[in-house]
Amino acid sequence: MFIQTLVTGLAIGGIYALMAVGYSLVFSVLNFSNFAYGSIIMLGAYAGYYILTQMGQPLFVAVLAAIIGSAILAYANEKIAYSSLRRRNASSLYFMISAMGTAIFLENLVYATIGSRFYAFPEVLTRQNLNVLGTSLGILDAFAIVFSSVAIYGLHWFLQNSKMGIAIRAASYDMQVSQINGVNINRLIGLVFLLAGALAGISGVFLGMKYMVYPTMGWITNKAYIAAVIGGLGSLPGAVVGGLLLGVLETFVSAYISSAIRDVFSFSLLVVLLLVMPSGLFGKYLEEKV
Amino acid sequence: MFEYFSGVLTFSLIYVIATVGLAVFTGFTGLFSLGHAAFVAIGAYTSGILTYFYQVNFWLALVAGGVMSGLVGVIIGYPTLKAKLRSDYFAIATLGFGEAVRVLLENLDITQGARGLPGIALETDLPTVLVVTIIVLWVARNFIHSRYGRAAIAVREDFTAAEMMGINLFTIRMRSLVFSAVTAGLAGGLFAHYVSFIQPSMFTGALSTQLTAGVVAGGMGSLTGPALAAIVFVAVPEALRVASMWRLVAYGFLLVAIMVFRPQGLFGHQEISWNTWRNLWKRVRSCGTKPC
Fold first, then answer.
1. What is the pTM of this model?
2. For the packed helices A236-256 and A139-161, what is the interaxial angle rounded to 10 degrees?
3. Residue B267's closest CA among B215, B223, B218?
4. From CA A14, how far away is CA A17, in angstroms rounded?
5. Domain B1-204 carries which CATH code?
6. ipTM of the complex
7. How far is A190 from chain B (nearest CA, A)?
8. Are the C-beta atoms of A200 and A23 separated by less than 8 Å?
9. Which of A29, A93, A117, A261 would you mutate first to test chain B, the one with the most B CBs within 10 A?
10. Do A81 and B209 make contact, defined as CB atoms within 8 angstroms?
11. I need a labelling partner for A59 at 20 to 30 A (CA). Which of A110, B55, B228, B234 fits?
12. In this predicted model, what pLDDT tens digit does every residue of B209-225 receive, in sequence order?
């Protein structure tokens, strides 16, 4: 029971970590909360579902399509809703409102065109169980853990070793100075949104398989915000640790106390954490700039 | 036909009350609340439960709903504002607060969970709402023109400078948060007694964002702008019978468009007053004699 809960928690935590990393990536460079991220995850899930069921493609094609679709969408989102604000040096309040507008727009566009129906992914992976050390382990959970760690490790490798990755890390410290040193900031931010969108696509497909696909599923990114706050906003290792921690804690709360209290627990944790340690475990806390 | 229009008007005025409250907070202190639906819900449930289970007088219950929202506003505002959370952090904290309240309402016994409270007495009508709207607008106007309101504007423009001038950041932000919580609670109470059925799913993040949309579209720093925007957002689609789904699509689109093209909102810092109309009339008249 204990190990099984732990593994389920890690699987959910892995998906939270993916979302939190995508969200933190944008936060670390642009310093604002991208509330549109949830709807991009949702559309990624729809894309994956459509490719898998309507076009009858295998799973990996669906995941790939979701990744590409979400990445393009996130890129377009940046170009349309944020780039003009960026040029105007607007405060993060305006960015957040613009992001919120995008979220409302995309979510309700899906409502109005596709409808509010819940779609279940075909049971390719959900039904099978692996038997490891006497506990039965859902193959979907195992798959989610493996896939999210591979994706996060890939991103980490990219940020550590590639030229663009180093530029992204530099920009997250100081955008102006890195610009002076010859970083093309527009291209860099476009890349950041492409990467975040790719992560959104993966997490969208896994969320869809774990739960279902429906227009308001983007609200689950609230959990990604909590995970990011636990780890420290803008810190990528923090987002990973925060996501895993939140997933495990939540699963234990719902397994041992009550599943109804789970969300209340998470949101209270968020509010308490913001008060006690707003910089989270690994983050840098920025006072409002003067 | 008259009944239909008065219904639409009542509904939009309830929105106006909540939006004006939020305008005092977001527009005049520069902080961004994403959990205002929670205050509306608290007001709705408090006054609904009081009249439904305890047969309290409607007006008393309405005031109790407002007071309860204000109290919760103090509880959530005291630590977050004391800690001087950055704007993103404050927005995420209010987001979490709003969701926590909704989940609590879904799991409490007295609120009857997700089933909601049916059959709340129908007490709200157009004159009632009109009276409350006028009172709220009047109080909000006086608040903004008072010393506190001017201090709030100073805080919004540059809080470091304002603090140096001896303005207590915390008190100013707290006052406007409590004010907006109380008005949201009043709107909730009126809403509960108007539709006579409330359930937690009515008070989701979507409602919070709709309220914020009104404030942003109307103009951050104006009272009449958001009020007008709230009426336009609720009344026009209702009267034109556009499907409610597309209304929200338009909300989102408008928010992005306003941020990109006119970030100060449609009215900016301007208020709609008699002078506005007089100036407009002058401009129209002068068009005939000289190029405008």
1. 0.83
2. 160
3. B218
4. 5
5. 1.10.3470.10
6. 0.80
7. 18
8. no
9. A93
10. no
11. A110
12. 888 888 888 888 788 88
